[in-house]
Every structure is written in C-alpha cells, then in structure tokens.
Amino acid sequence: MMYLCQSHRANKRNGHATDYSIENLRTDYYSAFDADYFRRLLGWVAKQHPEVQVEGDIIRLTKYGFDNCERYDPTFQRDVEY
Fold this sequence. Notes:
Number of helices: 5
C-alpha cells in the first residue's frame, strides 16, 4: 500500500497513468515470487481489501485506498486529488 500510495501521488502530480503492471511490481519489488502465484495473491488481496483493485495484469489504488493512505504512510501528503 505504501508503494501504491506514493506512486499514485507522484504519477498524478506528473500527469502519468496511475494503473500499475502487476508484473512490473513483481519484478521490481517481489522478484522471488513466481509470476502466477503473485498474480493470484494480489487478486486475493484485492478481494479482501477495498483499497486496491486488480483487473487482468493491472493493479490500481481505489478512491477508498487513496483516502486511507495516511494509515499506511503517516507522512503521505494529500496535495493531489484522486
């Protein structure tokens, strides 16, 4: 969540897309995980937690997740809109 909150904010400020490739997330931060397992794991996480949404190979922060970024990163700056 911390990664998604920080990335969403930075991308929104710079006019970039706020959807993220699950495969890029895996290779950048969780490369020890098998790709299929990681995709299934994130699908399960998205079903349990309304902060994230998974569609195909894309993960995104939901509005609810954005509104709760301070829970995961106390230094989160809310200087952008969702």
